[in-house]
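Form 7-S
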Amino acid sequence: MPRPLGELEDAVMTRVWKWNRPVTVREVLEDLRQERSIAYTTVMTVLDNLHQKGWVRREAEGRAYRYEAVSTRAAYAAALMNDAWSQSDNPAAALVAFFGMMSDEQRQSLRDAVRIVQGPQTPEDENPGSAQDAQGR
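Output:
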């Protein structure tokens, strides 16, 4: 299970995920510098650490590397949620508490996601009490 990303790691990964292509340290640095003062070596170290942790893969390009995300931000968020849920001594209560924190829009997104995972429903699935048994009763 992946550890949660630190603040700077998240800022770097946000760019890698957003751009959805191999990136250089220089590109990430220039974008980060719009928000904060940061050194080239700091960004290089963060990307190297992310590579060692398995978050990005890299390919040599001259004397530098291009870095690319190994998975999506959605997969990262799902892994964090799964890890938090699996650490609970009462997973059902943890889910109830989590759902209670959600906005109406988030709950609707959850319902939509459950429908996608469940797949197409048959009329009998939607109304199980009306289905006849194998002998027509």
